[in-house]
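User: These chains co-purify. Model them together.
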Amino acid sequence: MVVELYLDLLSQPCRSVYIFAKKNNIPFEFKHVELLKGQHLSEEFVKVNLLRKVPALKDGAFTLAESIAILLYLSRKFNTPDHWYPSDVQKRARVDEYLSWQHTSIRPQGCKVYDIKAMVPLLMDKPFPPEKLEEEIKDLNFSLKQFEEKFLQDKPFIAGGEISLADLMALEELVQPVAVGCDVFEGRSKLAEWRSRVEEAIGKELFEQAHEVVLNTKDLSAAQFSPQLKEQLIQMLQKELK
Amino acid sequence: MVVELYLDLLCQPCRSVYIFAKKNNIPFEFKHVELLKGEHLCEEFDKVNLLRKVPALRDGNFTLAESIAILLYLSRKFNTPDHWYPSDVQKRARVDEYLSWQHTAIRGNKCLWALHPFPAERLERAVEDLKSTMKQFEEKFLQDKPFIVGSEISLADLMAIAELMQALGAGWDVFEGRPKLTEWRHRVEEAIGKELFREAHEVLLNARDTGAAPLPLRY
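Assistant: Joint model of the two components:
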């Protein structure tokens, strides 16, 4: 029985899991959970993940939520190369440190910029006040500053000389605002060079494949949203952006 | 050279790290970083943690932020008993799953909960988050098991208890009317040891009872 990965490549952590599995030739069944259609809120999906979020994993009777838990589980089960989660205690700690920090310090900021620019216009009648977007971009800029100064510094990758789970997660967070025209790499040469290294380490073809959906965000239309769930999605958006 | 742990026991992740180190007899130097005095914002502390947060660790030249990274580092360096972070792949995944989820379960800086009076505009949101979190915690993570992973305490329970005690420190009895949660709390307390548990929570519960000074604006 092959591992099932429940994913929507619009979502950053889903892309990290997808890239990791593909890069490491981990056999899996791609189970598409379309967020715009509210499929993550269905009763069927609740059996896989009570938290109603993607990514999620099912391995026989075992189900698992949370991208970090899933990445670590896959790395252990399939014995992936050491550099992804180095056995060196201090390097490993650096990866843990980034994976912990990013939840509240980069993910929400990137998500908010994406949602304000992409989701609000499609779901809501009136646009978000531009000052609000400015505020969120300011927060994002602060996070990027911390990322460069504390986590990347002058190293090729977060943990040192090789790509790890930390870089994979970080990259996806930064692709999110880029997808809505907020180019976080512009004017940040060190960050742009890191991004090129990550792209190369992943492989250009897989990189392109994984990003195709999100980079076509401008082609999303209101028609793609499930009408029954529109209200629910609006409420979730309002709560997030409060 | 002994490991230095930069802590303020008003803050829940600091308590988790403190309890873990004490429980496992890990030799360390307690470096008090008083949040209420803004000591986390001073230049001296920047050298330990550029992110200006506690807990932080220093081990010789090696500095480390983030409670989860610190707990895992200590568990590996000091080879703590398996149940804290089980080697069984699926049990370990359950711990990872909780540790990942708990970051965003309740939004905002919960260290502020030790403040009196609690900023009113955040109160409503905090209570809303807390109720939703309690429900998810019981239904998804605890279910009918003695501990989050199964039959023994792990890092997940340690982080969870600190979180719930923080609410208690803000004057909300999150255990009231929740017998399953209450029983779990007692089991965790027993596994940690009543004395260590009491010691770790003294600062927090005193802040609740006596009222804390306002935090510097830059928090």
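The beta strands of chain B are 3-7, 28-32, 56-59, 62-65.
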